[in-house]
Design goal:
heterodimer, A: 565 residues, alpha+beta, four-stranded antiparallel sheet, B: alpha+beta, Alpha-Beta Plaits, 4 strands
Chain lengths: 565, 66
């Protein structure tokens, strides 16, 4: 194949509903739209069977089950969730999108054979609580085969799979969003999808901050989630909100693996280099407090010379340690025990050193950043819906799946009721887009995407990381503008690099939104998520959501009052 | 490094290529065996080995991540 000649096939696919992103949320969206009898395409740059953050598993499933205690009710959940998100999530969303669906979702997965009952003896759920929950909302489960299981169901009921297709942008005309364009990352073929409703569900945003190991793909959540949904929606004119709140967690040192929920959920401690538990200085619940308290606490211990910090599990009972080591850690991160073995750490008897992870935009419970949606998963652009971790709704795996389910159902309703724009786009426009994609393969000189991305991470880590100031953020904006110029003349040598280039383009778009938001928001909130040294306190005036959208090529900000219960 | 595949045990089924969420593993047209082309882009998620019918994939962490 001579890539420089750009001699690729062109495919036009017409469907009722297009779902971009084949992770857990996108697959749920495709399933629910297909169940309404519609023609549905599910597109992902990976293989779908194991795409997304849940590719290799997950061990905790957020569920409110009404089993008797006060905390296990929708009312208690809402009260807590409102406090956790400080009112920056639309409180009409959790009841409609999450609480009304979660029991059905759990039953559906159990019917499909996903092992949810870790207490095999009593055929019962094991539930643990963490991150400030009023009770034990996380069912500990074996989610290693959840993703292939629901993928198989989607295939079975007739969802059309488009694997290894990288979507580059949405197609927009005067009637709204009418589909998307992309290319096959293995064959190079160009794809035009035309759809009455389009759902973006590409998850969170990673790979735009450095981590301690200097390995950008060694990230907390999937490094292949690069903000495609947020960037594409924003370019199409949709509103995104609270992008300045970058999220951090604690992970094992030099290995950005999910583990924190399992560890604090089981009662693990976090201690400093002096062996002291220190989180109570920052929150009355200590290790059981909200997630952001933990990196915030570790940040100050390290800064004030009391590092390194550690997970301490030595006080746990044998039974709890067995559960943690057999059922949780290697289920949430399949390679967790390989890391321990190769590093020479014995989880039962040794302290396990921790680090503050690289920053990322959300995917966990309590995050408030992403695409602004209604309780019907509509964005602010006709024909465009959003589901999963790219939205501001309810996070974590089960939350994202419920949001995906809602997006599919509502998009189907829209189509069935006659919704959908004029599915026409002029051949000239399509040809122009096609050229703008493949031109990078013909370049003889210019930076490669990995070089541009490396620079992006340097800028974001240096100026938009933990501790921010006006001067630093303005410097970041100027540096990101330079990168935008360099992108125009970038070169790629193969289709894999071409995919990475478009990932970089979306990362740059999201990064600019983060910086703009951080500059605008003259206060600090959610610990190191957004800590302005020049405005170190949370302010009443800024207790609001900050929305951004593109209008006539200009960024327009809007402040939205917090939601009350 | 990152993903070590034992070619002698591998049956060339290609599931690791299909499952890798990062587009890192490619089937070699001649040998019909998988090749890891971009090990530095590995998430260390283990998706490549989970469904491997021959259990012939080992995940090896680089020194800086240990």
């Amino acid at each position: 194949m001579n890539l420089k000649e750009n001699n690729f096939n062109e495919n036009v696919v017409n469907v009722d509903v297009l779902v971009i992103g084949g992770g857990s949320a996108g697959t749920m969206a495709a399933l629910s739209a297909r169940r309404q009898g519609l023609d549905v395409a599910l597109v992902d740059k990976a293989g779908i069977d194991r795409s997304g953050c849940g590719a290799a598993g997950n061990d905790h499933f957020l569920a409110v089950l009404d089993t008797g205690p006060d905390w296990d009710t929708p009312e208690a959940f809402i009260t807590w969730y409102h406090r956790l998100t400080q009112g920056l999530v639309d409180m009409n969303i959790p009841p409609k999108i999450y609480l009304s669906r979660i029991k059905n979702l759990l039953k559906y997965l159990e019917d499909l054979g996903v092992p949810m009952r870790e207490d095999k003896e009593n055929d019962a759920y094991i539930r643990t609580g963490s991150f400030g929950q009023p009770g034990e909302y996380f069912i500990n489960f074996d989610g290693r085969n959840l993703k292939p299981t629901i993928s198989k169901e989607a295939k079975k009921i007739g969802v059309k799979f488009f694997r290894k297709i990288n979507i580059v942008d949405l197609l927009v005309n005067e009637t709204g969003v009418i589909g998307a364009v992309g290319f096959d990352i293995r064959k190079g073929d160009f794809y035009v999808f035309l759809a009455k409703a389009t759902i973006v569900a590409t998850g969170n945003v990673t790979r735009f901050y450095n981590n301690q190991a200097g390995m950008p793909y060694n990230s907390w959540h999937s490094p292949y989630n690069n903000g495609g949904a947020q960037a594409m929606a924003f370019r199409a004119g949709a509103e995104i909100k609270n992008m300045e709140f970058v999220n951090y967690t604690l992970t094992p040192v030099n290995f950005s693996a999910s583990a924190l929920n399992a560890i604090v959920g089981m009662g693990g401690y976090i201690v400093n280099g002096l062996g002291e538990r220190f989180l109570f200085k920052h929150h009355e619940k200590g290790e059981k407090g909200p997630r952001w308290i933990m990196p915030w606490g570790v940040y100050w211990e390290l800064k004030e010379g009391r590092g390194p910090c550690y997970f301490d599990l030595r006080h746990l009972s044998e039974e709890d340690l067995d559960h943690l080591i057999n059922n949780l850690l290697p289920v949430d991160k399949n390679t967790f025990l390989d890391y321990c073995e190769q590093k020479g750490v014995d989880v039962r008897n040794d302290l396990m050193e921790v680090q503050i992870s690289e920053g990322q935009l959300p995917a966990f419970l309590g995050s408030v950043s992403g695409i602004n949606i209604t309780p019907e998963c509509e964005t602010t652009i006709p024909g465009l819906y959003a589901g999963g971790a790219c939205t501001v709704a309810v996070g974590s795996l089960s939350g994202s799946m419920c949001v995906g389910d809602t997006a599919g159902e509502e998009a189907a309703k829209y189509v069935i009721n006659g919704g959908g724009g004029r599915l026409e786009v002029s051949p000239d426009i399509v040809e122009g887009i096609k050229k703008s994609i493949y031109k990078y393969l013909s370049k003889e000189s210019g930076f490669k995407p990995c070089e541009l991305e490396e620079k992006l991470r340097q800028v974001m880590t240096l100026y938009v990381g933990i501790g921010r100031s006006k001067m630093g953020l303005e410097t970041a904006l100027a540096e990101l503008d330079k990168l935008a110029q360099l992108l125009i003349t970038a070169k790629t040598e193969n289709l894999h690099e071409l995919m990475r280039l478009f990932e970089f383009r979306d990362l740059l778009e999201v990064s600019k939104a983060v910086v703009r938001g951080a500059l605008e928001r003259e206060e600090s909130r959610f610990g190191i998520s957004h800590y302005r040294g020049d405005f170190p306190e949370s302010s009443k005036e800024w207790h609001c959501s900050l929305h951004q959208k593109l209008q006539d090529g200009q960024v327009v900000f809007k402040r939205v009052e917090p939601y009350n219960l | 490094m990152a993903i070590l595949i034992d070619e002698k045990l591998c049956n060339g089924c290609g599931l690791c290529d299909v499952n890798c969420p990062g587009d890192l593993i490619f089937m070699d047209e001649e040998t019909r065996k998988p090749k890891v082309l971009y090990p530095e882009e590995c998430w260390y998620c283990g998706a490549c080995r989970m469904d491997c019918p021959k259990d012939c994939i080992k995940i090896v962490f680089p020194l800086t991540s240990l």
